[in-house]
What we know:
With 442 residues, this protein is mainly β. It has 2 domains: 34-254, no CATH class; 282-432, no CATH class. The protein is built from 4 helices and 19 strands. A hairpin with a 4-residue loop joins strand 13 (330-335) and strand 14 (340-343). The longest helix has 10 residues, at 151-160. The protein is globular and about 65 Å long.
Amino acid sequence: MKRLAVLVMGLALLGAPSPSRAEIGTADVAPAATLLLPYFEVDLGNPNGVNTLFTVNNASASAAVANVVVWTDWGVPSLGFQVYLTGYDVQSIDLRRIFAGELPVTADAGADPSNTVSPKGALSQDINFPGSVGPCGASSTLYDKPDTSAPIKFQNLNRVHVGLSSPIDGRCWGAPLGDSIARGYVTVDTVTTCSLLRPSDVGYFSGIADSRNILWGDYAIVDSQQNSAIGETLVHVESCVPGNGYSGYVGDGAGHCPFVPGDYTFYGRYVGFTGIDQREPLATTFAARYQGATKSDLLVWRDTKLAPTGNNGTRSCGQSPGWFPLAHGDVVAFDNTENPSDACALATNSSPAAAPTCFPLATQRVNVKDGNALAARIKPPYTAGWLYLNLNHAISADPVPGVAQAWVTGVRNVTGRYASGSSALQLDNALATSPGGVQLIP
């Protein structure tokens, strides 16, 4: 049976039974073909420690399959699994259980004729999904108990997300921050058939990925020991392939679709920036509030702009990917009376940066005052204000010179009292950003 866990957060529920029209090139909260959980934490050393939960929801009456991929903070894929969704379905995913080897059990109509595994409502479609005699069926790689058929897969998952060597290849897949907290991010795509391919695999966008904008979701990072929890919507990344069930796009979206070779797209780093993924990119520059620097964190997801292969993927332990540390364009701290102060200053925005940076990884939590074990301090000279975050960076032989998408969530936490989390204000989009972005203090 599915577990419809109630997350500790306020949910922004969709009121309409069919997908809304959306603006491509703006990260609006509308049903999407891809969802991004930009950062997660799971304390593997303490069952009562921090944990992350999220939901995957189907906004349409049609059945669908969602391909869930877990990535390390180096942007290396570590685990993939599918979730079958009947029409208007919801699947809750507890990442602590995933790291324990307990994957969601779902099944299509052929594998579950009595509707006991994946119940179907009166308005919901339930079908024999293509390819379901495999990863999406009842006798698949998805289990409601520890997966004893492939224990090394979950041993690997637990080790590489805390920066330890992989039992599969003896290499490191993520950053060592010196604690027991697994960190990374998650992507969720609609797919047309049940397959274990990932977005970074050849052929994924030419035969596996779906273009329907039907997914929505939310997440929570819960720390019961600190008496705190934050909740936010997942990042909704829309596809702009014509014929995906929309009657059209509003605003600038009409001018961007379809994407063509050379355009910046969300998964562009895996497809040579050919535009074949047809997913809109995110913003590059943000405004984020802070109130008491020691009590304010930033959750920052960044695009390395490079596929996780060779020197840019797994490495011998003690080494880092070729892009590390990621550079940025400009970081300026303002107080509440508009006084600016340069922060995290770098000589250039070229990655890898020559000096420590404030947001060096593909995803991270950074304290506004103290940074983290790998991140330099932002350390604004004010007690409260806001941060201007230009996260554009350039790489060697850059296919989209000096432009790089990112996502920022601000967290303010008073231990034992409350916590709040909210997406930072997006000041642009990668589709309309000049190389390097805007520098307030060159």
